[in-house]
User: Fold Pectate lyase domain-containing protein from Rheinheimera aquimaris.
Amino acid sequence: MFNKTLLAMLVGSALLLGCNSSNDDPATVPDTGIETPTPEPDTGVIALTDLDTVYGYASENGGTTGGSGENKVEITVCTGKEMINAIKNKDPSRPLTIWVNGSITLQNAKDSRIDIKDVSDVSIIGLGNQGEMAGIGFNIVRAENIIIRNLRIHHVRANLGAPGDGISMEGPVRNIWIDHNEIYNSLTVADPSLTEDQVKDYYDGLVDAKGDAQFITISFNKLHHSWKTSLVGSSDSDNYDRTITYHHNHWYNVNSRLPLFRFGKGHIYNNFYDGAIESGINSRMGAVIRIEHNHFASMKNPVMSMYSQAAGFWQLIDNIFEDITWQESPDDGVVAGEAAESTGELTPPYDYSASLLPVHNVKATVLAYAGTGKIDTPPSPGLCASPEPAEPEPTEPEPVPIDPVEPPANVDWNSYDGSLQPFADNALTLADGSLSKFEPQQSGGADEPNLFSANGDGTIRFDSTANSADRSRAKLSAVAPDDGIYPKYFTLLMGVTGNSGGNRILETEVALGDANAVAASRLKIILRNDGNNSGIQLENANNGSSVTAGKGNEPDALDMSAYRIYHFTVALSSPTTGNVAIYTDGNNTPLLKLESVTMRPASNGSDNYLQIGDAGGSSYLGDIDWVVWSNAGAYTPDMLKGLLPAGIGNISGYEAQP
Assistant:
C-alpha cells in the first residue's frame, strides 16, 4: 500500500514574454517612473494527493515497506496484550500489519511498553481516528523495516520500568518510518509536591533515537506539550553515524530538543515550529544538519549548538524566522543568531524534490496535513468491546519508620575482589562464606557479549567502546531478604577507576523486591565521565526524577577519571519509598541524600538482584578493583572504618581508626 507517488499540485501563473518580430532582442519596457509593487508570496495550502510515499533517509537502504508486500499477514487489535502477542508470534518470513482499533493502555497491555524487538517487516497503524497509545509507548530495539502511522501516543511516564518515550529507538535499528501520528505529553503535572525539575522529568521524549540508528524518517507528525521532545544520541559518547529525516512535522508548545542531534546526519525540511520555550534544533558533537524550507515562529534560539564537548554544524536553506528571540552565544556554545549563516553542508543521497514545498506554503500545508486522520485506512470492523472491570488495586503495607542504624561490630560482607572475571567459578565470596559467581544476562534470547577482561593486576576492565549498543551485564540474584518485612537495608561500596576519554564508566543496579510483591524499588547508578554530564547519576530515584552528584559543570565536580571508592546506602520504609545516600572515598558527609522519596520502580515486584555492566546505548570504560555489599544495614563511612574485607584491594579512606 506504500508504493504510490506523492504529488504536490503546485498551481502558479506562467510568465509570458513578449517577442519583437523584427529582431531577437526583448521589447524595451518604458520607464514610467512608477514602482511596480512586489506581489505577496502565496501562503496557501498546497493540495497533497498522495501521502503514502516514504521520503528521506527511510527511502534508502532498500526502502521502508513495513508490513506490506506479498504474503502479508493483517490483524486488528483492541488491546495491548493482543498487540504484544502479534509481534512476539510474527512469522519471520511474512510481513505483518497490525491495525489498531482502540485504546492501548498499560492496563490492557499488562506491561509497561510495547517492545518491537528482534523483528522486521512490521506496520502498526491506527484505523481511522481510533488508534491510541494512552500512557504506553513503543520500544524499538534491534529491528528493521518498521512503520508506525496514524496513532495518538501520549502521556508515557518516564519512571515505570520502560524507556519512557512515546517512541524509543535503540540501535541497531534500520529503516523506520514514523508518520502521521500525534505524540504529546504535558508541560504540567497535577502534583504540587513536585519540584520544577521533577515535573520536567515526569515524562521523557516523544521520539528518541540512540545507538546505531539509521535510515529513519519522521514525517507529518504533531509533536507537542513536551519538555524533552526528540533526542538523537543519548550522550556525547554515543558516536554513531545516525541518519534521520524530519519533514512536514508540526512542533508546538514544547521546551527544547527539536531535535537535539549528536553525531551523524540530519535533514530537516518543511517543518512548522510554533512556540519553543528554550531552544529548537541543537546540533552537537559533529552532527551535520540540512535545515531547509522550515517556518520557525514565536520561539527562542531555533538553531544552535550548546551543552556538548564539541559543536555540531548546520546548513540553512530558505527558512522563515518569525517573531524569534535569539540569545547571545555563550563561551561554551554557538547560537545561530539574527544573521544566521551556514556552518556546514550536507547533500542528501535521496530525491525528495516531489515533496519539497515552497517555504511560504509550509505553515498552512503542515497545519492541514500533519497528525492523525489524514491517511486512508480500511474501515473499522466496529468498536472494541468494553474492557473488563479493573481488578482492585493491591494495597501496600503502611510505611515503617526507619530506625537509626547503630555502628556494627563487624559486617558479614558479600564481596568481589576483581581477581577473577565476574562469570568465573568462585569469583564471589558470599556473606555465609560460600563461593559463587555472577551470571551473564540475555538479550532477545541470546547471551550478551562478555565485555569484562582481566588487567593482570587484580582489577577487571569493563569496555563497551567498540560497540556502545552492546549490552553486557553480570547479575547476582537474591541479594536482599525475601521476607516482605520492612525496613530493608542495603549498603554497596565499589572501588572503580574511570577513564580520561569522556566515556561513561560503569552502570550498576540494585533491585530489592520480594517473591510475592506487587511493587519493588531499584537503584540504578551510572558513573559518568562525559563532560558537563559527568558525575554519579541515580536514574529516577527522586520521586521519578534523575539526580546527579558531583556534576561536571558544578563547583563541586568530581574527577571521574581517578580511582575512587563509591559508597551507596538504601533504607526502604516500604516497597517503593525510602532514603538514599551517596558518599565517596570514606568521607562521612554525603554528596547526596534523598529522604522519603519514591524510588525507581523495578520491572517486577519480585526483582531482587545486584547487576553491574552496561544496558546498551552508550560507551562505557572503567576498571573495577572490588565490589562489596551487605543487606544488614545502611552504614555510613564512619561506621565502616576498619570493617571492610581484608585483601580486596585499595580501601583508602576506610582503614581502621587510630
Notes: Residues 1-27 have pLDDT under 50 and may be disordered. The longest strand covers residues 167-179. The chain is about 5% helix and 35% strand.
